[in-house]
Design a protein that fits this description.
16% of the residues lie in helices and 30% in strands. The chain has 804 residues and is of the alpha+beta class.
Length: 804
């Protein structure tokens, strides 16, 4: 997927691609390195170079990133005397070894800019300033800076969120807004290394969305008040395949509401509007690199920052004057006079004037189309017909077990080789203990993230915890004599952030007490426990074809498939075409899924979103927080899971699903994600499209204010506009979900748009009364709203169309 993603980023006006380096997957076992396939860092950097872009290599190697354990390998915990990210020799030794390894690889491949490569920046550590406490941490930070500098990479090093970084390290800003930020030395450039275009989601939590108007406002304010600067967006998040999502409860999807969505499709209008912003800024670039801005007060909450080269005129053809005019009021629109011209400023917006006269872009005026994707079920024959199952054994299943007379900490025991750890013990019960009407209870003082309780092989209870650890009180049924107690402790990602987060434990701890016995309570925590790491199905790798063939599956599945700890197996055909592929797992409980041996990630749709803070509308005005503009309250957690086409075979693809809770596999189906609906709503008062500026820059007599904005629509490749659901020139109301006519409407709106767009991949309509040969409502500002459908065209139709 890399070349296409990089190309789409470049088309969106991106100049630099930055990536973390994931220590815990490159060195999953100490001194055993993996840089193959998806982990081929050199190939990724070279892919960026081939596209003509630069690279910021954020080596870390601590990275946060909502990535399991913050990117640090769990085997570090086994090194004596280890403490993460503080003045600690064992940690510093391992960190330096990995950083030196990465730097050496880049140098050997001549990938730094002074070698002719694309890497212009590198980062050491990550947001440590938010986690440091005391002199030992400061000493570590300075050690990390000097260690990085000693690598002699020939390009600058950065530290994000590190206000006390030494002078030879560039300290940078991360956040939703960074226009306030200045580095700790005036000789350093102003850099925004993470402009958060959305936010991550958790299982059981509503989905956050950040309006593109606010992102553009924040970015424009940063450029407006900057000097030398770089603004990095969270531009593509993708998928936390396998068990790479951090915890607790980070979701598998890392879509992040980013300009390119999880599947690699344009997220419109976010991608398009930010592209327009970038093009407007680049019109100003010739003067912005020559001088610092001059502030001009324009009124309450109104201001301008003007870039003008000393001694130069502000002729448009010379592009030596550029202005950013801002209205930072959260509710009131404004009109200001700037350089003799009227500039209309919606609340919470910035206008960019590349010639200090005419508006090329306003952050709140979105001319980019909105694209509405849809999941289309695969219609391939024999896609998914039948399922087989395999029952995971309860408790101990293998010869390699651990015994201890205490409760073992889960991360140290599993080294995160699995989400699962069995705690097993036994207890003898005499007849007198069960006399009476008192219900026996198993109480556990502390556990996380999820737990299942089995008594004598029978399921007794399931518990999940929204916080790091909670207590359990479970009613159980015991028998006279020998009783086996098996507790399955499950992690849902390891913590990736926080002060001394390596000290956060997992599994069972404290007291485990058997209550309700006539002879008195029994404390079980100090008796002998036997432990089994992982599942038998995991050990046999039954999610691969070889492993699946090594066991006996049963085809006798009966609804409603509520068996706990069950593996399911089937096969499906690869959907035709090139659209991204997804699988619906909304009918399942909690577990993991694999396609052709590749782990798609954790699923947990049975965990409903209990939050009630969602809203039908989202006002972009005012400061954004992750609590703002949330959706999906009351719905299931993530239902759709991405299957990269590169993981698929032409015909039979092995699909294996492990469900801890029991689900309905008969409702699983494969689909493709495509853009089905496109919409646009453009006011005639909006600035003309950015590409029109080339006309008047080449012809100074052409006035941009006389140019007309356009409503532009574009389907995906191999699609055409098949129908127009709505079109109105006048004062249409609503949004893409539900447009409707206002009290002003040109009656021929639909006919004009149909003639311009039907059967075409792209079309453009001037937002003007002249286009519709009518003036539906004289004296009012009008707009054009369109909603259209895109439809795939067959290869035969496409060939015929191209020939024509």
């Amino acid at each position: 997927m890399w070349p296409d993603l990089i190309a789409k980023a470049k088309a969106g006006g991106v100049d630099v691609i930055q990536t973390y380096v994931f220590w815990n997957v490159h060195e999953a076992s100490r001194r055993q390195y993996d840089f193959h396939g998806r982990l081929d860092l050199v190939s990724f950097v070279k892919s960026v170079q081939r596209a003509g872009l630069y690279v910021n290599l954020r080596i870390g190697p601590y990275i946060t990133a909502e990535w399991n354990y913050g990117g640090l390998p769990v085997w570090l915990r086994k090194i004596p005397g280890m403490a993460f990210r503080t003045d600690n020799q064992p940690f510093e030794t391992e960190m330096q070894t990995f950083v030196t390894k990465i730097v050496g690889m880049m140098k050997a491949e001549k990938l730094f800019s002074w070698q002719g490569g694309p890497i212009i920046l590198a980062q050491i550590e990550n947001e440590f300033g938010l986690a440091q406490h005391g002199s030992a941490d400061i000493k570590y930070m300075l050690w990390a800076a000097h260690m990085a500098e000693a690598q002699n990479i020939g390009v600058p090093w950065t530290m994000c969120q590190q206000a006390n970084a030494p002078n030879f390290i560039i300290n940078t800003c991360n956040g939703f807004y960074c226009d306030w930020f200045r580095p700790n030395n005036i000789s350093k450039p102003t850099m925004w290394t993470e402009n958060w275009t959305g936010w991550f989601h958790k299982f059981g939590a509503s989905i956050p969305h950040r309006p593109v108007e606010d992102i553009a406002f924040a970015a424009a304010r940063f450029f407006e008040k900057g000097g030398s600067f770089l603004n990095y967006y969270m531009y593509f998040g993708g998928t936390n395949f396998g068990r790479t999502a951090s915890g607790p409860f980070l979701g598998t999807s890392y879509d992040y509401d980013a300009p390119i969505d999880e599947y690699g499709l344009f997220h419109q209008p976010k991608w398009g509007h930010l592209n327009d912003l970038h093009r407007a800024v680049k019109l100003c670039e010739p003067v912005m690199i020559l001088t610092n801005p001059v502030y001009r007060y324009l009124g309450t909450n109104l201001e301008a920052h003007i870039y003008q080269a000393p001694g130069k005129t502000n002729q448009r053809s010379s592009a030596l004057c550029c202005a950013f005019v801002a209205n930072v009021d959260t509710s009131q629109n404004a009109n200001v006079t700037f350089n003799g011209n009227n500039v209309s400023l919606p609340a919470w917006s910035v206008s960019i004037l590349p010639d200090c006269q005419n508006v090329a872009f306003n952050s709140a005026q979105v001319v980019a189309q909105t694209s509405v994707p849809a999941m289309r079920p695969s219609i391939e024959p024999n896609s998914i017909k039948s399922w087989e199952s395999y029952q995971e054994p309860v408790g101990l299943w293998g010869n390699i077990t651990i015994s201890a007379n205490n409760l073992l900490e889960q991360i140290n025991t599993t080294l995160d080789g699995s989400d699962y750890l069995w705690y097993t013990t036994s207890v003898n019960i005499i007849a007198e203990d069960l006399q009476g009407e008192v219900q026996q209870q198993l109480t556990i003082s502390s556990t996380r993230d999820a737990l299942q309780i089995y008594i004598n092989g029978n399921f007794s209870g399931n518990h999940t915890f929204a916080k790091s650890s909670l207590s359990v009180n479970q009613s159980i049924k015991l028998i006279i004599g020998h009783n086996e107690i098996a507790l399955l402790s499950m992690t849902v990602g390891l913590q990736d952030y926080g002060y001394r987060y390596d000290r956060v434990s997992a599994g069972l701890s404290g007291s485990i007490n058997l209550k309700g016995l006539r002879s008195g309570d029994k404390e079980l925590a100090t008796q002998q426990w036997r432990y089994q790491v992982g599942l038998k199905g995991e050990a046999l790798k039954i999610y691969t074809q070889e492993g699946a063939n090594s066991i006996l599956w049963t085809s006798e599945l009966q609804a409603p498939w509520t068996q706990y700890l069950t593996w399911y197996k089937t096969s499906f055909a690869t959907p035709s075409g090139s659209d991204p592929v997804s699988i619906y797992l909304g009918s399942m409980g909690k577990g993991q899924a694999w396609v052709n041996g590749n782990n798609l990630g954790r699923f947990w749709p049975s965990l409903l979103i209990s939050e009630t803070d969602c809203s039908q509308t989202c006002d972009y005005r005012g400061k954004f927080t992750p609590k703002k503009c949330r959706t999906d309250c009351g719905q299931q957690s993530q239902q759709w899971y991405h299957i990269p086409r590169e993981w698929l075979q032409p015909n039979q693809n092995l699909l294996v699903v492990f469900d801890e809770l029991g689900g309905d596999v008969s409702k699983i189906y494969v689909a493709t994600k495509t853009v089905a609906t496109i919409c646009v709503h453009v006011l005639e008062s909006y600035p003309p499209q950015l590409d029109s500026w080339s006309q008047f820059q080449a012809q100074p007599k052409v006035q941009p204010m006389l140019l007309t904005p356009e409503a532009r629509l574009e389907c995906q490749d191999n699609q055409v506009i098949s129908s127009i659901n709505f079109a109105s020139f006048g004062n249409p109301q609503g949004n893409c979900k539900a447009f409707h006519q206002g009290n002003c409407h040109a009656k021929n709106s639909v006919e004009v748009v149909k003639e311009a767009c039907i059967g075409k991949q792209t079309c453009s309509i001037l937002v003007s009364s002249a286009t519709f040969d009518t003036e539906p409502c004289a004296g009012i500002s009008k707009s054009l709203a369109i909603k259209a459908q895109c439809q795939a065209i067959s290869s035969t139709s496409l060939k015929t169309k191209l020939e024509i």
